[in-house]
User: Fold Gram-positive cocci surface proteins LPxTG domain-containing protein from Streptomyces viridochromogenes.
Amino acid sequence: MSYRNRTAALASAAALAGSVVWLAAPVARAEVVDVNYQCKTPIGDKSAVSPIDIKGARSGSGYRITMSWQKGVSSSPVELGKGAMTPSATIALGGADSGTLTVTGPANDAAIPANTPIKINDLSGTYTPKKSGEVTFTAGVLTIKALGTTTTCTPTNDPGPSLKLDVTAARGGGTTGSTQGGGSGSGGGAELPQTGPDDSAVALGILGGTVLLAGAAGTLWLTRRHRSARAGH
Assistant:
């Protein structure tokens, strides 16, 4: 094999390994969706529209789902001091899965003045799929607990999914958790959302590329050794 051919073989092996890794990345389609919330508060009904953004990132055998509000919803007739308000929400699952995922987050880190829209911090939860395929994530009920009261805000405009994510179920299926009727979910702090490649598929792609590169390098070494042996005679 000529030097040019050996170089081409090595380049092809590296390109093949890279293409395997690229194809392993899960497909995610996120869209900011306006949600019309109708809120039941201790002092009467209120309404507010907020754009909702949902993102997913691979996390172990599941996916970290983060829900964001771009505008405040509801309000309080009195000031809510730091740490006085705790939010949580549900996300409806569709497509290859069903049920709801519960997402939670920290209490307000600053006082909220009276009669102003309540800004909701990012809420997160871990989703473990039971089936592989495209799963949709749609904003559900928002619950706000403050000063011993509970406010529930329900979407009334039948919003579409804020996220469509191609997921891969873990071996043996999902585990039970705070998800009802679908994969599992658990609360946690906010986390920068991003959609990354499937860890196991990436490892497989890298391993495959390494084997191909090692084979090409071995062929090159044997060819040089054979030529050296012939020159010695």
